[in-house]
Amino acid sequence: MRIQHKVIIVALLFCSLTASAQQHLRWNSIFLENDVGRSDESYTNGARLTFMHDQYYTPWWARSLRSGIKMKRGQTMHFGWALGQNMYTPQDLTLYQPNPFERPYAGWLYVGAITQISSSKSLHTTEVDIGVIGPSSYAKQTQHLVHCGIHRGYCFPAGWHTQMKDQPAVNARYLYEWRQPLLQHHDTTLADSIYHGGLTAGNIWVLVHAGATLRAGWNLREFGPEKIPDVIMLSSAETRSNTSSIQAYGFVRFDGRGVGQNLLLEGNSSDSQRYLHQRTRVRDIDYGGVLRFERFRVAATHVSRSREYTEEPRSHQYWSIDVSWLSRFR
């Protein structure tokens, strides 16, 4: 059985876990990230579906976690899953044989299991992703569909035949966040700060990171906003039964990390044709806004990422769009 078939089977298995006799609430999120306005390069596109369930729903794979972890007063436990695809390309897409001093063509297709423990002031997020890097990620087909199907006559890039070979990939992530209100009006928070720290380990990334977010607006409650960067996952676990909510705020965020490994820069372990000097310190500076009306929410985030390897000519910038809605399911 080919690797991509196994990934699809695992994804369908996760989808089947949402069946339940009792009605529950669930946050459904669609994330789209792209370096729109720039030529495709570096981390050029990402897409992800995320489903976070309320505290009353427990899939079969999480029952032992539910019973084995002792919760503190005021904490709730949430479970979810995700399906995503990331796409990476070098700077010059016109070369049939890419420059060995630029990052390789690569795609990463994965399915993930998410566990969150949340309270009003803190959030613990653990995610385990299983997937594949290489042709079975269908990154080449995705980019050609956009370029040749939507932008007719522009059928670059030319070097996908050199992309990383098929390789199974497993990555585990942990993130801890805590909130500090800065300005309140009665029971409504108008400004707050969110501090975070975490680590990622697996055969794709090995790193640690930390940073802070400053938010200002109306009715600040859950953690966020979210995006799908290479190294952290910020999923909201707010699936409360009270959906009468209007929320609007702007934010700025800083995230710095120390990188021990990035397989999507280094290429396959057997690939000796790459001559990149990977930077061990990388930072993201984000800004954007969030608007929520009752069951629906839209968030836009602009990300500026410093150079990930010495030969990279400039920092990388892209937009992240998140469309989320609250639904009921059985």
- Count of distinct strands: 12
User: How many structural domains does the protein architecture include?
Assistant: 1
Q: What's the architecture in CATH terms?
A: Beta Barrel
**Could you give the order of strands across the largest sheet?**
1-2-3-4-5-6-7-8-9-10-11-12
- Major sheet size, sense and barrel closure: 12 strands, antiparallel, barrel
Distance between the termini: 33 Å
CATH topology: Lipocalin
**Helix content percent band:** 10-25%
Task: Report the uncertain regions.
Answer: 229-244
What structural class is derived from the secondary structure elements? mainly beta
Round the Cα radius of gyration to an integer and report it: 20 Å
Individual helix count:
4
Instruction: Tell the overall outline.
Output: globular
Q: How would you name the CATH homologous superfamily?
A: Outer membrane protein
Name of the top-level CATH class = Mainly Beta
What is the residue-mean pLDDT, rounded to a whole number?
83
